Amino acid sequence: MNPHIQTLHPYPFQKLADLLKGLTPNPDKKLIKLTIGEPQHAAPKVALEALETNLQGVSKYPSTKGELNLRTAISNWAKQRFDLDHLDAETQVLPVTGTREALFAIVQTLVGEKPSPLVVSPNPFYQIYEGAAILAGAERHFLACDASNQYRIDYSKVSDDVWQACELVFVCSPNNPSGTVTTLEDYALLIEKAKQFNFTIVADECYSEIYFGEKAPLGLLEACQKLGNTDYQHCLIFQSLSKRSNLPGLRSGFVAGDANILKPFLLYRTYQGCAMPLHHQIASIAAWNDEAHVIENRQIYTRKFDAVLNILQPIMKVSKPEAGFYLWPELDMPDEAFCTALYQEEAVLVLPGSYLGRMVNEHNPGSQHARMALVAEESECTEAAQRIKAFLSRR
Questions:
Q1: Average pLDDT of 193-201?
Q2: What is the pLDDT of residues 44-85, one digit of tens each?
Q3: Which of 367, 334, 376 is nearest to 148 (CA)?
Q4: So what CATH class is 3-42+293-393?
Q5: Residue 158 backbone phi and psi in degrees, to 5
Q6: What residues does CATH 3.40.640.10 cover in the chain?
Q7: Measured between alpha carbons, how far is 390 from 117 in angstroms, rounded to an integer?
Q8: Rounded distance, CA 15 to CA 336, Å?
Q9: What is the distance between the terminal CA atoms of the chain, rounded to a whole angstrom?
Q10: Domain 46-290 belongs to what architecture?
């Protein structure tokens, strides 16, 4: 057995289940879960109809590279969304079966050239970043995102010794859980360091289409375009239909960017065996080609966040994120205690923030925070907010 498996941390939701063992929610109230970031809004009809009318695709083996018409649809969407001059559907785009497997796989592809490889990650973080690094045999270097720095990473404070050992840096933008967006200045520094020290910037952008107002979050390839890195050297973006189009079960996304990285990544994936079924590809084309449902989805989230924050902001330290569908409030009590008491008294379940972070220098930047996923219908989210308000009022 791979000895690294024994060093994997329990998944946050397993830790939550262990925390709640033996506890029961208030029996007089319906349980409301704000824990898992699984979109609950309706999937777009155009994608469902394409899926239903192309089920004959199950009779054919799909190619790992995906059909050209899917890669073209993705390229066209990305060029329009990020104002790119070009994105070659043949060499700079690969469909993936959801970003989770692709984020894991890219680490296995990229790690191993340097003598003591390092994977740099935000802290708190999406746990796949850490698990992929562990199983690739890489050390982890965490960069804190906490209230003291407005949940942003100051990359200028990272030493060149770290960049020298780094083979891959994860950027989650919009960030899970804080909702902050990486700036052009941040990307300029990262791209300069990546060229100097030969590492890859992996931007997890799966929340990029859930934002508030007219200004869409900056993407890594968009930053490359603005900074003159028009071949996207050292840069990859990972995108998904799960959040954008409420299609988490379709397991459909893409990776795009540096063709010199995508070529060996395709070879790795050919052996891994993760080709997207043909009927899923056709449904994905329909989803990437339709923006109307995405606009409607954003409007729903905007109304929901405004309603929930109107209830919570007078009583707790919480603000609207730049993008994404999580609230990341700062608590006045330990996060596990907050979670268990809220569960028992008000039948509302949230995720302790410390479960998403790691202790570095005796500090876990996720501690005394809770992640709340506002993915359910507005009425359910506002009911949860009213219960949280009542809970805090009693204290």
A1: 98
A2: 999 999 999 999 989 999 999 999 999 999 999 999 999 999
A3: 367
A4: alpha beta
A5: -80, 130
A6: 46-290
A7: 49
A8: 10
A9: 50
A10: 3-Layer(aba) Sandwich (3.40)
